[in-house]
Amino acid sequence: IPSPRLVVGNWKMHGLREQSTRLARAVAEGAQALPDDVRLVLCPPFTQLASVHGIINAAGPAAPLCLGAQDCHTTSSGPHTGDISADMLSDLGVQYVILGHSERRQAHGETDALIRRKVEAAEAAGLIPVVCIGETMEERLEGRTTTVLATQVEGSLTDDFSGVLAYEPVWAIGSGSVPPIDELERTLSLLHGLLQSRLKMDDIHVPILYGGSVTPAQAPTIFSIGSLGGVLVGSASLEAKSFLRIAESA
Ligand code: PEP
């Protein structure tokens, strides 16, 4: 079993100051009771990174808490109005950055090539990229899942990628549906194989997360897959109790 298992909370575009600090405080308090081999990564919107960082800091270095962001630019600074660079995130105490989420691929037209440049920028800034890949329902029904995942692994990762890969079937996100567990197991071993052939290193340490409608009720079954590196949680991460219950199953 890869250790520690990551439980990443993607808050998306949710949370004003009060709600975000309340949520982060409640997670930090509950995190003290978690087993040693679990690490929580809180990914608030950019505007709440500094305040959540303060709460994580106050919890102390022994707390299994890290700060993550939801995107970064491909360059470290420059004339890019409205963008945020990986260096800026790192400077703020951010350790992880989610890249290539399906919502950014769809709503912002992010391509594998662009995501790869963001991965390079994140790595150069010392951040750990969490790269999201996954097939749509249409691609799944057409039997193209393997091809789609292979293309995304090929295009969006760097040759010496040592971040985190998140398998998020687009149809599972926010839908309440999770792939059947035997199918998920097969997809994970497919991804391990794709990483082996894609990356130009002998020693590959890339945890693979599952994301898409992970709830406290589903979590024990999902975590029963031994090779799973953790989960990426959307809606259920907006409530401290449910996020912590998911982490308890890790
Ligand atoms: C996500 O969007 O990354 C996600 C996993 O969302 P949810 O858990 O709400 O399906």
Automatic annotation (TrEMBL):
<dbReference type="Pfam" id="PF00121">
    <property type="entry name" value="TIM"/>
</dbReference>
<keyword id="KW-0312">Gluconeogenesis</keyword>
<dbReference type="InterPro" id="IPR020861">
    <property type="entry name" value="Triosephosphate_isomerase_AS"/>
</dbReference>
<feature type="binding site">
    <location>
        <position position="174"/>
    </location>
    <ligand>
        <name>substrate</name>
    </ligand>
</feature>
<dbReference type="InterPro" id="IPR035990">
    <property type="entry name" value="TIM_sf"/>
</dbReference>
<dbReference type="InterPro" id="IPR013785">
    <property type="entry name" value="Aldolase_TIM"/>
</dbReference>
<keyword id="KW-0413">Isomerase</keyword>
<feature type="active site" description="Proton acceptor">
    <location>
        <position position="168"/>
    </location>
</feature>
<dbReference type="InterPro" id="IPR022896">
    <property type="entry name" value="TrioseP_Isoase_bac/euk"/>
</dbReference>
<comment type="pathway">
    <text>Carbohydrate metabolism; erythritol degradation.</text>
</comment>
<keyword id="KW-0324">Glycolysis</keyword>
<comment type="function">
    <text>Involved in the gluconeogenesis. Catalyzes stereospecifically the conversion of dihydroxyacetone phosphate (DHAP) to D-glyceraldehyde-3-phosphate (G3P).</text>
</comment>
<feature type="active site" description="Electrophile">
    <location>
        <position position="101"/>
    </location>
</feature>
<dbReference type="InterPro" id="IPR000652">
    <property type="entry name" value="Triosephosphate_isomerase"/>
</dbReference>
<feature type="binding site">
    <location>
        <begin position="10"/>
        <end position="12"/>
    </location>
    <ligand>
        <name>substrate</name>
    </ligand>
</feature>
<comment type="subunit">
    <text>Homodimer.</text>
</comment>
<protein>
    <recommendedName>
        <fullName>Triosephosphate isomerase</fullName>
        <ecNumber>5.3.1.1</ecNumber>
    </recommendedName>
</protein>
<comment type="pathway">
    <text>Carbohydrate degradation; glycolysis; D-glyceraldehyde 3-phosphate from glycerone phosphate: step 1/1.</text>
</comment>
<comment type="similarity">
    <text>Belongs to the triosephosphate isomerase family.</text>
</comment>
<dbReference type="GO" id="GO:0016853">
    <property type="term" value="F:isomerase activity"/>
</dbReference>
<keyword id="KW-0963">Cytoplasm</keyword>
<feature type="binding site">
    <location>
        <position position="213"/>
    </location>
    <ligand>
        <name>substrate</name>
    </ligand>
</feature>
